[in-house]
Amino acid sequence: MPHFEESLALAKSLGQEKDTGLSLINRANALWRLGRYPEAKGDLNQVAGIAEQPGASKGISSWFSLALARMALSERRLPEAKVKSRQTLALAGSQLKGTAAEATYTLGLAEIFSNSAREGRVKCEQAVLVATDSGDLLRLSEGLLALSEAMLQTGDAQNALTTSLRAQELFARLGKQDFEWLAWLNAARASKTLADENKTRESATRAADLLAGLEQRWGRDHFNSYVRRPDIDLFRKQLSDLVR
């Protein structure tokens, strides 16, 4: 978080409107991921006048729209997540492939959690292709995680297991512990469906250990706000059912 504060302060001191807007969006993304939604929305409200003006660059306008989509998905405001994801895709076009990939799997997850699992799976498959083409490993790993969820929701446990473990390997390489535990969770869910008790227990234990490690890494206050996120609260309940 401190580096976002430093970037924002520098941009403001230099009177750079675009960089100030981007810094506010980056800080908002960090805040909502920690469950600090009111603060994130405050930052996004500040940048709306820059990002939504007719002459705004596609980079800042699509990044702004994507932040709103991802936050809405996290809060389970699914209709808004879908609207903002589609808006992001229109803004990103074919040039901003990383942003387009992220918007596509966000839309896919919103469809999945709106009981349109098959449509959501198609979107997640598309997102993985776009992310692969972009060369962005973080977007690819998040796309694979979303696709594993889609596979679970469509009853394809074997492919869900393979895909979630592929995502887990990438998250581990990138040091993204906050995503890696979710990949292990999906691997555990898939293993349970496949009636592999040992793998279920092993994957669930790995997920639980990584989640517990986040509290040590972030501190109690940040961790507690993170686990109060509506989506993370649901995932923790799924994990609790698997480690009993």
Topology:
Elements: H1 2-13, H2 17-33, H3 37-51, H4 58-74, H5 78-92, H6 97-112, H7 117-134, H8 137-153, H9 157-174, H10 177-193, H11 197-218, H12 220-227, H13 230-243
Helix pairs in contact: 1-2, 2-3, 2-4, 3-4, 4-5, 4-6, 5-6, 6-7, 6-8, 7-8, 8-9, 8-10, 9-10, 10-11, 10-13, 11-12
Question: Could you please describe the fold and organization of this structure?
Answer:
- The chain has 244 residues and is mostly helical.
- The protein folds into three domains: 1-56, no CATH class; 58-154, Tetratricopeptide repeat domain (Serine Threonine Protein Phosphatase 5, Tetratricopeptide repeat, Alpha Horseshoe); 156-161 and 173-244, no CATH class.
- Helices cover 84% and strands 0% of the residues.
- The chain contains 13 helices and no strands.
- The protein has helices at residues 2-13, 17-33, 37-51, 58-74, 78-92, 97-112, 117-134, 137-153, 157-174, 177-193, 197-218, 220-227, 230-243.
- Helix 1 runs antiparallel to helix 2 and helix 3 runs antiparallel to helix 4.
- The chain is globular, with a radius of gyration of 18 Å.
- The model has no long low-confidence stretch (mean pLDDT 92).
Provide tags for this entry:
244 residues, mainly alpha, Serine Threonine Protein Phosphatase 5, Tetratricopeptide repeat, 3 domains, 84% helix
